[in-house]
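Structure ticket #2291
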Amino acid sequence: MLLASNGLTFWQEIQIAFGDIGIIPAILLVLGTVFIIVEIFQPGFGFFGVVGILFVIAGMAVRLFMSKRGSPIIQFFVMLLCVTVAVCIALLIMLRSLKKGRLSRTGLVQNTTAVSEGITGGTEDFSSLLGKIGKTDSVLRPSGNALIDGKLYSVVSQSSLIESGKYVQVIAVEGVKITVKEYSEFAKDYV
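Resolution: structure written out below.
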């Protein structure tokens, strides 16, 4: 496992990369790694992620310019590998903690729905209106309002236009869409 560039082994390059690293590159690498780990816990990609990446790059650059022995390219990849491993370990710890640990009991994880208790988030069922007769409250072009069973509903006409005050019959209900058609005059007795 001898490296061809200068006769050093991979483990010797690791020892050189971190053995005489210096205080400034060490602080930049550690802070950068910490900021990247903090960014994992924050939603989105923001301040901590950008600053963390910049600190890691700056720490590696300062370390490589200070290097007096060994291969700077190999040392760069060694430091990058160490930062990546640290971030991946933090990510795995965070994911496990989100599922079973302390983070699953914090505000970072939403365990409930946004709908309050006692309120359903479903669509109202208008299927009981099928076949009912009502009276238009506005002109249907093709949509408008109709009074059916004493309640005002938003409806859509089957034809293109139905005048206000005309009798209509519900012919189809699809979710919240209530389709009506014009009904004959003798329906006055039914409304």
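Closing remark: The first strand starts at residue 133 and ends at 136.
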